[in-house]
Specification:
231 residues, alpha+beta, Ribosomal Protein L22, Chain A, 5 helices, 10 strands, Enbac_synth_compD-like, 4PPT_N
Length: 231
């Protein structure tokens, strides 16, 4: 799924089944040794996806350890992101010479819990949601949540600036329907995210937003936010 959303220069890997515990590095295993079984499985599978994605860049396997705010610590010269939700794990990485930032997120394509929308949506977000199609395929408030998660995962490692849900406004739209009808329960689209204040790329250029892609398939919403380095 993730490969359908990221640009060609981004290497990605995903999995619908858990694996990889035996391949964890000792320092990784120590982080989740006392965690519940479901947490150990998702952690191991996400690391397996990360190493598969790094292999796609021609890089050797390395431990992927959490840093500040649990941001994955990638090898020097690499940017990337991990995600996991029930039934799905994924990783996406790229050389930092090609991308300033990558953020990915996966969520169940289900209604948000009561009260969550009011805590994550701006007034502009709500206007966009009101205009979204009511086709029963996409849970748009959950898509909004996922897109904001992707934006945060791209923004914070790049800028070091904390971002709250209210600091980003997202406008998501569905792709035009193809000539051939998509499989039941599937949809794709894009989104733009505008940050209410300005940050900087690693080379000092201002940035205040991202473009992204989204996909709904197999009961899962996947979103990606990327910021390429200008040619």
């Amino acid at each position: 799924m993730i490969a359908q959303l990221v640009p060609p220069a981004v290497s990605s890997a995903d999995s619908f089944e858990d694996h990889g515990w035996d391949a964890l590095y000792p320092e990784e295993r120590a982080l989740v040794r006392n965690a519940v079984e479901s947490r150990r499985r998702e952690f191991a599978t996400a690391r397996a996806c990360a190493r598969a994605a790094l292999s796609g860049l021609g890089l050797p396997p390395v431990p992927i350890l959490p840093g500040v705010r649990n941001v994955p610590q990638w090898p020097t010269g690499v940017v990337g992101s991990l995600t996991h939700c029930a039934g799905y794990r994924a990783a996406a990485v790229a050389h930092s010479t090609a991308f300033h930032a990558i953020g990915i997120d996966a969520e169940p394509n289900e209604a948000l819990p009561d009260g969550v929308l009011g805590s994550i949506a701006t007034a502009e977000d709500l206007r966009h949601l009101d205009a979204a199609p009511r086709d029963g395929v996409v849970h748009w408030p959950r898509l909004l949540f996922s897109a904001k998660e992707s934006v945060y995962k791209a923004w914070f490692p790049m800028t070091g600036i904390e971002l709250d849900f209210a600091d980003a406004t997202v406008h998501a739209v569905a792709d035009p329907r193809p000539t051939a009808a998509p499989s039941a329960g599937e949809a794709t689209g894009s989104f733009t995210a505008r940050i209410r204040f300005q940050g900087q790329t690693p080379d000092g250029h201002p940035v205040s937003g991202f473009s992204g892609r989204w996909l709904v398939r197999r009961g899962i919403i996947v979103t990606t936010a990327t910021l390429p380095v200008p040619a």
